[in-house]
Every structure is written in C-alpha cells, then in structure tokens.
Amino acid sequence: MTWVVRLIVVVPAIAGLAGLLLGRSRPIARGIAVGAAAATTVLALAQWVAPLRTADVTTFGALPLGDLSVPLHLLSDRLSGLVSFVVALVVLAIQTYTVWYLRDDRRYPPFAAGVSLFAAGMLLVVQSSDLVLTLVGWEIMGWCSWLLIGHDSERAAARRAAYKAFLVTRVADVAMVVGLVTLSVRARSTDLLAVITQPEGAALLTFGLVCVVIGVAGKSGLVPFQDWLPDAMEGPTPASALIHAATMVAAGTYVIARLFTLYAADDAARTVLAVLAAVTMVYAAGLAFAQADLKRLLAYSTLSQVAIMLAALAAAPASVGVGPGIGHLIGHAFFKALLFLGAGWLAALVGSTALAAMAGRGRSDVLLRWGMAIGLAALAGVPPLVGFFTKDTVIDAALEGIGDGAGFRAWVVAVALFATVLLTAAYCMRAWLLLDTPPPAPTGVTEGTEGSLDVEAVAARETERPLDVSERHREPEAVDETPPARPDHHPLHAEPHESRLPAQLREAQLLPLLRTVSVAALAALTVLGALLLLTLAGSLHVGWLSALVSVLLIAGAAGAVWAASRRGARDAADVVPDRVRAGAVAGYGADAAYAALGRAVIAVARLVVVLDRDVVDAYPRAFAATAHAAGRAGVRTHRAVPSVALIGVVAGVLLVAVLGVTAWR
Amino acid sequence: MIHLQWPVMLAAVLAGLGIYGVLARRNAVLVLIGVELILNAANLLLVTAGTRQDSLFAAGSVITLFVITVAAGEISIALAVILVMFRRFGHIDLTAVPDLTPDAPEPEPTTGVQGEVVER
Amino acid sequence: MAVTILVLIPLVAAIVLFAMAPSATADRLVALVASIGAAVLAIVVSALRLDVDVMWIRSLGIRWHLAPDGVSIALILLTALLTVGVVLHTLHGPPPQGGSRSTLLGCVLLVEAGALGTFLARDALLFFVAFEVVLVPMWVLIRRFGDHHRTDAVRADAAGRFIFFTVLGSTLMLIGILFLVYHQGTSDLDVLAAAHADRLSHGLQVAIAALLLTGLGIKVPLWPLHTWLPAAHTIAPTAGSVLLAAVLLKMGTYGIVRLAVANVPAGVATLSPVLAILGVVGVIWGGLACLVERDLKRLVAYSSVAHMGFVALALASGSHTGLQAALFGNIAHGIVAALLFLVVGDLKEQWGSADLAVARASLRDSAPRFGVPLVFGFAAALGLPGLVSFWGEFLALYAAWSPAPGRPVALLRACVVVGAVGLAIAAGYALRVLRIVWAGEGGNPAATPVRDLRGVRRGLIVTLVGAMVVLGVGPQLLLHLSDLDAAGVLGAVRR
Amino acid sequence: MTTTPGLDVVTLLPALIPLAGVVIVLVADLVVPRFRGFPYALAALASLGAAGAAVPGVVGGAGAVRETFCMTGGWFAFGPGPGAPSYSQAQAATECLWRAGTLGSSLQLGAGLAAAVCLALAWPSVRGRSAEVSREPVEAVLFLTALTGTVVVAASRDLGTWLVALELATLPVIALVALSGTRAALAGAMQLLVTSLVSFALLAVGAALWFLATGAPFFSRDAALAAGHVSQGGTALAAGQQPSVALLSLSLVLILAGLGFKLSLVPFHAWTPTAYACSTPAVATFLATVSKVGALAALLVVVQALAALSTPGLIAVAVLAAASMTLGNLMALRQDDVVRLLAWSTVAQAGWVVLPLVSVSPLGQRSAAIYLLTYVAATLVAFAVVARTVREVGSRGLSTAAYGGLWKRSPWRAGALALALTSLAGLPPGVIGLVGKVVALRPVIVEGWVWLAVIAAGNAVLGVAVYLRWLRPVVNPSEAEAAAAGEPAGPGVSPTGRRLAITMALVGSALVLLVVSVQPQLLLGLFGS
Question: Where's the NADH:quinone oxidoreductase/Mrp antiporter transmembrane domain (chain D) (predicted)?
Fold first, then answer.
C-alpha cells in the first residue's frame, strides 16, 4: 500500500509537469488536470480509509550527507489521510470548476498544470515525514501561488499582486528555513519523528519553533504579513479558492500540527503564535466587514479563519491535541472553496467582483443562491453547518486551555475568538444582504449603494494601490450560455471554433454542468462535512455553554447588521465612517508599509551598486591608473641621456653595496 | 708584509675620484678618464693583494696586466665611437638629449654604410 | 591513456581550428566530432575511473597524473557535455561577430581542454598549469567576440579585467602551492591529501591556506574580488558566458576543495570565519545588486556572485554535509547559470542589448519557448525546491548552522541567518526579471516579438531544464557520486 | 708546486669553433668577397658548431664536468688560522681554468643557438655586393667574437679569464650597435658605451676586492670558504685581516652591480631601450639574448663559488629583482614600439631571471639559468617575427599596429608570435613560460621570501598586461582591416627569397619553443634534476 502514499504526491506532480509539456491542446490539458485530481482523490480516500500508520515510506532514498540524516520519508496516518483526502477533494472540485471558468482562456493549460503542481506541493507537505520534504512542498506552493496569482499577467495589478504574494511569503520563509534547519540540527536528522523525539537543546528548540511560527505567519497571512492575501485576489477565482481553501494558507496549520508535540512543551513559541493569531483574527474580521469587493471580503475572512485554526493550536492543551485546529482547517476548506467558487460564478454573471455590482444577483440561480447562503452561514458558524462545529471546538479548546493553566495565551485566544465570532457573523450577514437584496431601481445596478460607490472612488484614487476596482472588471463577462471571445483573446491561440461546431455545442452544455456539480458538491460537504471529522480524535468537541454563547453572538450580530442595513435596503457597512472604511479597504496602509520597506531595500541596493563601482572596484582601477601614470612618469625620465644612465649606475651600486654589506651575515 | 692599508686606501681614493669624474663631467673624454681612474684603483688593489706571500702564479700582477689590456681595447672602441659622435653631432656632451631624428635618406636595409665611410 | 586522449582531443581540435582558413566549412565537423568525442570519452573515463600517471617534468617532480574521482566526475561531465552544447549552440546561430567561427570554436575547445585538465589533474602543479590554460582563449573570446554593440574600450576593459584578476589569483595560488610542495616534498595531490599536513606548523598552514583561498577566491569569485565577473559576463559572447559561469567559476571552488581543504585543513579551519563572512556578504551584495541592475547579463553575473557565496559558506562549515553541499551547489550553479546565459544570450542576440529598461513584448505571449526556460532558470536561481539549486543552498545553510567541531558556531549561525535573507533577496530579483521580461511589466505589447526558440537551440535549453528538474528531484544522483571522496577529502578534519 | 696546465682541445671546442669561424670569415672575405650572405652562413655554422660542441657537456649528466687547463698546486691565501682548513690544503686538489659543468654547458649551448638565430636575422636582404665597404664580414666577425666571449665566460673560473671574456662579450656588441653610424645608432652606442665602461671598472674593482679578500685568483668554493673561515676563526691574525668577509661582500655587490648592467637590471638598465631601439633587429636580438646569457653565466660563476658559504638570501638581489620587474613592466606598458617594448620586457624579465638567486643554492642557480633560457627562446621568436615584419613593411613594422590582423594574414607567424608572447607572459599555450614562473618562484619560496613572491605575483599581472598589448592587435580583426587598408607595397618590401634565412630562424626557434612547451623537461633536463 505504500505506493498509494507516494502516488498521492506523484500523480498531481506528474500531472503538473505533463500539463506544462503536453498542454498545447485544451482537451488533453483538461483530461490530465481533472483526471489526475480525481485519481488523487481516490488514492487519498484509500489512504484515509486504510491508513498505514507508518512513518517511513521511502521516496527516493536517503541523501548521503555524512553527519546529517535525511531519509526523505513519507508518513501515512489518520491525520495525513484525512487532510490529504480533503485537499484532494477540494482540488478536484476546483479543477472541475476551472474547466468551466477558464473555458475561453488561452492560458488554461498552464493554469491547470499550476493547480496540479500546487496540489502536489500541498499534498507533499501533508504526507511528508521529513522537514526537508515539508520545506520542498512549502516552497513549491509559494511558487505556484506566484504563477496562479499572476495568471492574467497582462494586468499590472496581477503582476504586482503575484510579486507581492511571493515576496512577502518568501521573506517569512527566511525564518522558516532557519527554523527547520535549527530543528533538524538538534536531532542531526530531518526526520519528523527524530525531530519530535529529540529531548535535548531547549534553547535552540524555542528559537527554532519561533522561527517556524514566523514562517507560518507568512504563508498563513498572520500580522504583519497579512496584506499579500487580499491582493492575491487578482488571480482567477479558482486560484483564489485553491490558495484560500485547503492549501497554501492552511499549510502552516498543518506544519505546526505536525510539530505539535514540540509546541505543546514550549510555552514561549505558543505565546507568540497565540498573540499573532488573536490579533490577526480580530483585525481581519473587522476589515472584512468594510470591504467593497466580495473576493477581498472573502480574503480577509480567510485571514481571520486561518488565524482561528492557528489559535486552536496555540491555546489547546496538550491533551486535546491538534484536533480542533485541523478540524477547523477541514471545515474551512469546504465552505471557503464553496464561497469562492460561488463568488466566481457571480462575478462571471456581473462581470465584476465588486459587491455593489453584484447586488441582488445572487438570486439569478437557485444553486448559486443556496450555495452562497450555506457558505456564508457556515463561515459565520451557524449550526448545524460544519463551520459551527469546528469553530466551537476551537472555542472549547481555548476554554479548556484556560482551565489547563495555559494562562495568558489561552485568554487572549478565547477573547479574540468571541470577538471574531461576532464580527464574522456581522460581515457574513452584510454580504448576504448585499447579494440577495435586489436593487431598488431595475435599471441601475449601482444607484442604491451610494456609500459603497464612495468607497470605491476612494479606493480608486489611491494610485499606489494595485487593486483599482476599474481594473478588476476582467472576470468572464457574459453569461455562460453564449461565451464570446474575451477582448484579449489571441486569435492564434484560440480553439478553432467553427470547424468543431458540434463539439462546441456539447461543450456549451457540459461546461456549466461541471461548474454546477462542483459547487453543489462543495455545498453538500459544507453541510455534511462534520461527519468526516468524526474520524479525527478531538476535532469535534462542542461545549454547551460556549456553543450557546456563540450562537447568541451570531444571532445578535446578524440582527444588528440586518437592522443597520435597513432590512437590506442599504449596505450595512455604511454605518462605518467613510474614512475608516476607506482605510479598511486599503488595508490600513499595510501595502504602503511594504512598499516603503521595498523602497528601503532598493535604496540599499543602489548604495551597494555605487559601492561596488566606486569602492570595491576602485582598487583595480586605481591599480591600473597608477601603473599607467607610473609608466608615463618613467617615460619622461628615460630620455636616453647618457649621464642620467651613469647616475643610475652609481646610485645602484651604492644601493646594492649598502644592502649587500648590511644584510651580509 | 707591510701594512696593506695604505695602498688600499689609495685605491679607494682613486676610485672615489674616478666616480666623481664619471658623474661630474659632461665631456665624454673626461668621463673616460674617470673610468680609467677606477680601473687604476682596481689595478692597485690587485697588485697589492698580489704582493702577499705565497701568492702563486703572480696572479695579482698577471690580472693587472689583463685589466690594462682590456682597458686599452675598451678605450680604443670608446674613442672611435666618441669620434664618430663628434662628427655626427658636433659635440661630445653626455648630458645632452640625443637627437634621434632619422639621418639623411638611405636605403632601409643597408643602413650603416655611410657610418663606416665617416669612420674612415 | 584514455584520459590523456580526453584532454588532447579538444586541444588538438582547437589547434586544427585555429589553423583553418576563415572561410573553411570543415570547422563544423571538427568541432562537433571533437566535442562529442570528448564527451563520450569523458563518460567512459568517469565510469571506469581510468587514470594515467607518468612523469612529465622530472626536474620539478611534476607528474602527468590525471584521474577522475567522486569530487571531480560531476564537473568533468558537466564540462564535456556543456561544451557539446556550446558548440551546437554556436553552430546553429548566426555567424559570430568579430572573427571567424572556427576561431571561436577553437577557443571554446581550448577552454574545455584546460577545464578538463584542471578537474582531472592530481598533481598540484599540473593543476596550476591546466588552470592557466583557459585564460588566453577566454580572453580572446571576450576581447574579440565580445558584445559588438559596445565600444572597443569596453571590451578591452572586460577582457583585461578577466585575465588580470585571474592571473593575479593564479599566481598567488602558485605561491601557495609552491609553499605546500616545498614543505611537503611532493606535488602529488593524493600523497599531499594523505599526509594531512602533518609536517606543517599551524602558522604555515594558515599562510598557505590564505594564499590559496585568496588566489582561488578571485576565480570563485569571493566578495571583494568579484568585480571582474560582471564586466566579463556582460561583454562575453554567449558561448563565453556559459563556459565562464558553468565551468571556469567551478575551477575556483573545486580548487579550494582539492588544494586547500584537502591539504591544509587546519589553515582553512582557521580562516573559515573569513570565508563564511565573505560568502554571505557576497550573497547579500550580489542579490542587492541584482535588484537594481538594468543589464540582464550583468544581473545574471551578479546572481552568480550570490550563488557562489553559498558555496563558500558551505565550504566554511568544514563538515561532510558542507562539502557535499558545496560540490552540489557547484554543479547546480553550473547548470542554472548555463541555462540562464544561453537564454539571455539568445535574447540579447535578438534584442541587440540586454537592457531591462527597454520596453519589449512580453515573452510569455510572444515567445513562450524562451519564456518557460527563463521561468525555470530564475525559479532555480531563487532556490526553488524541485530544481537543482535548492539542495545546494539548503544544505549549505544546514551545514553552516552545525559546522565541524572547532569552527566559530555563533558566527556561522549569524551567517546562516544573513544567507537566508539572501534567499529572499534572490526571490526579489528573480521575480523582478520575470515580471519585466516574462510577464511584460513596463513592456510594449506592440513591440516586435523575438523569434521563438527552435531546433537545436531549443533542444539544448530543454535538455538543461530537464537536467535541472532531474537533479532537483533526485539529488542523490550527484550526492552519491561525491559521498565517499568527500569523506576522503575531509579525512584530516575528522581525525 | 705547480704543474703545467693540461690542454684538452675537445673540451675547449665551444670556444675554439667560433674563433676559428672568425678567422675563416676574414680569410674568406679576402678570397671571395663577392657573396654578401657568405660571412653570415659561415658565422652561423660556427655558432651552431659551438652549440654542438657544448652538447657533450650537457648530456653528460649532472655530475659531468668538462674541465681543462687544470693545474695542481696550492697557494696561501691569508695566513691560515689554527683549526681552520687552509686554502693551501684544499688546493692539494686540482684547480682548472676552464670548467664547464652542466650549467655552464647548457648556457653555452643556448648562446650558440641564439647567436645562430641572430646571424640569420642579420642576413642581408639584397643579393649581390655593394662595392665600397665590406660591412658583412665585420658584422659577422663581431657577432662571433661576442659569442666567443660569452662561451668562455660561462666556463671561466679564474679572475683573469673571467674579466677578459666578459669584455670580449661586451665590446663587440658596442661596435655592432655603432656600426651603422646613424645618429640613432650612435646615441645607442654611446649609452651602451658609457654604462659598460663604468660597469667594467666596477667589475674590475670587485674582482680585485675578491682577490684581496680571498687571496685566490679563482671564483671557487674553496676561495670563498677561505675568506669565510679567516673571518670566523679570526683569532690569530691582525685586525687588518679581520674585514675580509666584509671585503668579500663588497666585492660581490660590486660584481653584482657590474653584471646588473649587462643583465639590464634596474637601476643599471638605462641603456637598454635606447640601445635596442637604435640598432638593427639582429643586434637588438643579440643584446637581448646572447649578451644576457653571458651576463648570467658570469654571475653564476661567482654565485657558484659563493654557494659554499651557505649565505642567506641576498637582499640586494631581491631588491634589484623586484625593482627590475616593476619598472620594466610599467614602462613596457607605455610602449607602442615593439622593440622598445621588448627592451623593457627584457628589463622586467631580467628581474625574473635573478629572482631565484636570492637563494645562492644550486637550486637557485639552476632556476635562474632555466628561466633565462626560456626567456631567450621566447625572445628569439618574438624578435624573429619583428625582423620578418620589418623586412616586409619597413620601419612601420616596429609599431604594434603593424601586427593588426596578423592572425588573419599569416596564421602561422601569428601563432609563433602568440606562443612567444604568452611564453613571456607566463600563460599557456606558452607552457614553458608558465613552468619558468614556477621554476623562478621555487627558490624564493624555499627561502621563505613571501613579500618578494607577492611582488612577483603582482608583476605577473603587469607582465600579462604588457604582452597582451601586443597580442591584442594580432588577434583582433577590427584592426586588421585598418592595417590592411593602409599597407601599400612600400619600397622596403624585398623579394621573397631574401627572407628565407629569417624564416628558417623563425621556424627553428618557434619549433624549439613549441617542443619545450609541450615537454618542458627537455629544457629543464639540461640542468639535471
């Protein structure tokens, strides 16, 4: 059965490479992408059902490195089985959806290949039992995120967002690399079990664990690395779904879960994690409420939700373990994927992702409407959807942590969790109201939402921002039944439509079906996903009291928003002062801070170039100049005058005599 | 064996005078004389050293003769060159920067023909 | 015998090519046969570990001792195979500017002969002689076949820098070698390594190590000695840049392993802090320079400085892992730099310059066959796992974090942190280039796109990409090759 | 106490053959004055003969010493101190006036071959005979005489022979320079003359001091030892004898200074560029090669004697070597005239030649001789190319620009030049130059003179810069077109047949250079191992 474990990683990786190499033809690319995703799902299911509980599935053989053991093993247990399955499932849904979503994009083949590679990276992190392999998967995800976010590289905003996403996570990866190196040095091995069981080196351990936390903070978008994630919405919606649902941002949770044994014993590292997570979840949830763009709203909600997972790991007592965190990871994977796919569908309908443009369009398809409803409800934590269970398990774990004597970090987390529950419910309600309330005037789409328009204007004025709303009108604009060519569609690369008319028609019917199926499947999983968690110890543990409190909070927040929006007649966020809202849309200057940092680095780089030219390189040039000058001076003194030569001779004799006689022993 | 110091000191004085002459004189012939003084110092030293007991072959004296002979040959060549120089340049000043401009046109590969004519 | 022939094939072919009339067309045949023959023979020699050991210059005790071992096989194969690639690349391009093609090919083959000799030599002085062989042909390549869009003075400067820096380095190295040989009584590297510098006092070891490291550090190039590299790379023709980056720079690090680490281990250990600091300064310095560099070839050259900094850091660690990382990093950089210079060189050939500030059509759309290898190349340059350079850099960081006993741990760990920052900077410049060239930032979609890669040149680049992926996925292929002999080199340290 | 010197004609052949050549040339000129090439042919044969006669001394192996004019006997130096081995005791053995070891024989061989090349370069370019003057036999005779002096000095052991031979090697060269009688030639000759006169005077003083210090008219170990022991054991003697070691050292530095002139060491070098540039290529070649061989041979005679004293490295040599290298290279960097460039390169290379002598050990001597011969071989090729080019394009051939595009026009000649220049620069493909560098640095390392080695390393860079200045136009085609465009078939262009001798010399010397580049042992082996 070990081949299943390996194949789970290898199949999507091969699919990714094959997609790159063979992806000239769209049907082949589709086949490879969806087929590989399906195969992976089946394999992951098999592994989950019958986990090997072994930690030494060999891959390519250990690296011969003398004093460092690098076995490069994979691991198959219940945790990796479940998470792999969920990841594979979500990826399958996204791949299926993508076939529809990018039906006219001539870059579909590389995109699908990128998604496959991305999945391979995530699955490698999940299956890995070796820190090096973890890092490999980790970095591959980062790279694929760059490719996917920058998919529409014609647009400056997409290019910038991709660059920003990769750079920010890469900066955090500095700490990740150092952390992993530190952990492996302790054990003289990169093997996960060896690292976990190594008892010595406490000081180094804390350092390493904190470094890993920082690395995780980068990929998971914890403060202060949070700002790349909303910008990453520049990518096509399936890419956003992929990054936000089950893979990249959640990978940090998984890595920390794998190292939980070490974290459980290390209060300092967990405190750092707790503080970062607590700040992030509240901050992001707050920002989400004010967003004018559906995808950005979802992005901020992702930040907040991922922080919840990590908070679970930070606060849960050792006895509870990783269950709450992983449970929320899985639940979030389902509903967030659902929300993004739904958002993409909506955007395809209205040609924009701005909430103002979408007003009421959630009603245009019943599946879409209910899908969004389920997704938002799950996000808010409404029972009995999966979000309710997982989130309340986290709250419960945090409360248990307080009881367990965790002190400060558990308190911080618990307080932040309740605040987040309140805020989450608020922004979910606001979004739902915006999507589901038909606009008052039948002609204008945007008239009724003056407030949000103002905000968009504010946002548009900020030239530094890449996320100019006007630039974001690039989702498939027409309704799905009559797909026209996109404006930037390159005729050379286009499918030969005319020659294959029947196939074209068949496609026209088939493609929306794929979309519908994937959204429906995810909706179902969002409803029933809690069942999956039954197999994972500790991932479902809802306390009565905390559940009651959170439900009351949700209801209260929802009601308040409903009231504030005058029963849906206007945007609830209009109650927020405009300046605050504009700041929220702009991420409160985080982007400017990043840019300032970047400019500082560039300034240093310019200094380096100047130094390189004028200082480091000055010596060779000075040497050359001196040589030439000396030569010139020499030529002047050598004018073939015999007496000068004589003086030279006599002076030389004196010199030699002095040197010779004095140095003689 | 009488004191060797005196002849040696005389030789030193001679050599010093010779070097002074070489350095101070602009005229080539006078420089030649300076060189002769140094050579005489060498000769004096050789003869002095040769006077010591058991110095066989009379090496000191013999080598002195050698040096005198070589010096003679040297001077002859030197005077020949100086003579030609005087005819060509009109002076024998050693501190002058030599005039290296090409001579009167002559067939490139057979330069020097006229030189010998002049020397005769 | 076969080993001698291996070195002689390119040498003789080079002479034949030089003697050839500029209009002759047989140069194609000669160069191809010679390079392919040498490559095949290199594989045979490496596989069978053939060697030759006869007296060459009896008076100096210099033996004609050529033998491949685990430390050098990878480099030998890289050199031989890459030369085939360079020859093919030259033959399938426009006729070179500045001179006849046969001269260009002759220089390439002469460089190959010198590099092979360097990697095969098992005699310190023979190593030195072979080390010098590459200089004049490379000088001709830069001076004569260099970028003809630049003035003659610029070419003279670049070529002069290359040869003057390197000659200074190699003469310093020679002084170090002579010290070593005089005090140890032999120039045979095997005997020298086996002697473990037992007879040398510590001070002498440090002095020899300092001379060797300075001399070879110029070739590597280590940080403050690197200023010849960008100029040379920028001006050199594609063939020259590829050989320079992929082969010549490796001679420096290989020399450090073969001459310094193996023969004066204690001296290198004493100097390892300096080596590490210069290495990481190079990482940061090169990376930062890349962030604002406008000339693409120059940028790749600065990235070479950064990558070789990691190799230096790995060497400074003194551990087995470090040595393995250094050797792997060497090969990795060889492949990546070769790929990047091939792609960039081809682009420059069509663009006329490599200035990033010029608005051009993005490669992603107009010339994907250029674009994809470029993406792969820069992905490798930033150390992406799954591609070959990741292993060298990660292992270098690991090795420096836990160095051999007796090294300054705190300092090396600080270097690791700084080096890791260098990884982030690498991401910055790699993506900057891709954003501009591949994705078309500041580009001009209406600009005339470049002709896409095709034919042999495409095959060449695809092959290099393949090698990058294969070695990136399976680093064991290389690591196993050098494992035993790396341990052997470190024998003295271990004891 | 003395015996009549034995005389071995075969051993003396290296000196006798050129002398015989002198006589034959003069006689032949009387008998058949018609053929201009004839004296050169005879002289070249005599040079080759001299070289051939030196071969037995070379191949005899390290131990073989060919000596003649030997006499058994002894004489007192200063009065022997008690316990110190006296010179008279040592002299129970034989002392020979002519003593050519492998070192000396190899230098004789090199001098003979180099002289033959010079003669070939001097070959007249016009067939027939000019009526009035007979310059050719004079020139040939002067060449041969100077060669004789060089050959003799390499084998001389006594002060008299040494001094005479040294001047015999110098004076004809002055005449050779002056022979053309042009203003330039006179200026060059004057430079050469005054410096050589003063140097000779200093040499004579140095030799006299040696005699005074040791009491022996020989440059031999025993003589040096005698002086050394007198001072070390100086218990019995009066204070007057005490400073004999100081005298010895003073004599040595004077000799060094005197020979420094002939080797063109800074600061005795001032004559070099003028004399080279003002004479014909053949004479310049002779100055650059045979004269240098003679000078080094003379120096080695002294140093060999000194080796017995196990003296430490000579700082004076080190300073001269460093100064010569540096100044020579710096000045060469500014030259556009190839002969001047080669002249300054001679200065620089002279520094490399004496560099190994910081160690007076046999290793140092051997290394110096090896380096000198590599330099001679490379310089011969370079001058042969210059001579050939001058024959082709006249005096324009003296500027580096004239070599633009040589690679394209004449790849073989360009190859030879490239080989020569890279040999001088110490870069492959001139492997022999590289090996020479190794050889020259080795004694420095043995003595532990790191600073000197580092200066040498810096000068290696400067040297490369110098020779690349010339090599650049050779390989650079952009200047080829310019050169080709501006190249009229000038009046200096002579018929092809007249360049045969030069071509042969070029081919011969280039082949030697090539062979020793491939197998340096052939050159190094001359001196034993």
Answer: 156-462
CATH code: domain of residue B81: 1.10.287.3510
**Rounded distance between C-alpha atoms, residue C136 and residue D152, angstroms:** 40
The pTM of the full predicted model, rounded to 2 decimals, is 0.87
Domain boundaries, chain A: 153-439+514-585, 591-631
Report yes or no on C494 lying in a domain. no
Pairing of strands A74-76, C62-66: unpaired
Q: What 3-state class would DSSP assign to A69?
A: strand
Chain C environment of A68 (Cβ under 8 Å): 321, 395, 398-399, 402
**D472–chain C nearest CA distance, Å:** 8
Please name the residue that has the structure tokens 């640095």.
D441
- CA B46 distance to own-chain centroid: 18
Chain D CB contacts of C103 below 8 Å:
407
Nearest CA in chain A to C378: A143
In sequence order, what are the beta bridge partners of A354? A293
Q: Is B23 on the interface with A (CB under 8 A)?
A: yes
ipTM: 0.84
> Does the beta carbon of C175 lie under 8 angstroms from any beta carbon of chain D?
yes
D270 touches chain A (CB under 8 A): yes
Per the DSSP assignment, residues forming a β-bridge with C63 are C55
Domain annotation covers residue C382: yes
In D253-373, the DSSP E strands lie at: none
Contact D435 C160 (CB under 8 A): no
Q: Let me know if residue B60 belongs to a domain.
A: yes
Which of C288, C431, C445 is closest, CB to CB, to A166?
Answer: C431
Inter-chain CB proximity C362 and A153 less than 8 Å: yes
Query: In this complex, which of C324, C386, C428 lies closest to A65 when CB atoms are compared?
Result: C324
Cβ <8 Å between D476 and C135:
no
Assign C66 to helix, strand or coil. Answer: strand
Domains contained in chain B, number: 1
DSSP letters spanning D510-527: HHHHHHHHH-THHHHGGG
D436 within a domain of the structure (yes/no): yes
Among A62, A139, A184, select the one facing C385 at the smallest CB separation: A139
Looking at the complex, does the CB of residue A642 fall below 8 Å from at least one CB of chain B?
yes
Q: Are strands A54-57 and A74-76 parallel, antiparallel or unpaired?
A: antiparallel
Q: How many domains does chain D have?
A: 1
Please give the interface size between A and D, counted as residue pairs whose CB atoms are below 8 Å apart: 109
B95 near D CB under 8 A: no
Q: What is the pLDDT along chain D (529 residues), one digit of tens a residue?
A: 444 556 778 888 888 899 999 999 888 888 877 677 778 888 888 999 988 888 888 876 556 677 777 766 544 333 344 444 444 444 445 677 888 888 888 899 999 999 999 988 888 766 555 555 567 788 889 999 999 999 999 888 888 889 999 999 999 999 998 887 788 888 888 888 888 888 889 889 988 888 888 777 888 777 766 665 544 433 333 334 445 677 777 888 888 888 888 888 888 888 888 888 888 888 999 999 999 999 999 988 888 887 766 565 578 888 889 999 999 998 888 888 888 899 999 999 999 999 988 888 888 888 999 999 999 999 999 999 988 888 877 777 788 888 887 877 788 888 899 999 999 988 888 888 888 888 899 888 888 888 888 899 889 888 998 898 888 888 776 554 554 544 444 444 444 446 788 888 888 899 998 998 888 888 888 876 5
Close Cβ partners of A327 (under 8 Å, ≥ 6 residues apart): A389, A390, A393, A394, A533, A536, A538, A539, A540
Establish if C495 belongs to a structural domain.
no
Residues in chain B within 8 Å Cβ distance of D133: 113, 116-117
In a domain, B84, yes or no: yes
CA–CA distances in Å: residue A128 to residues A118, A250, A258:
15, 15, 10
Quick check: helix, strand or coil at residue D83? coil
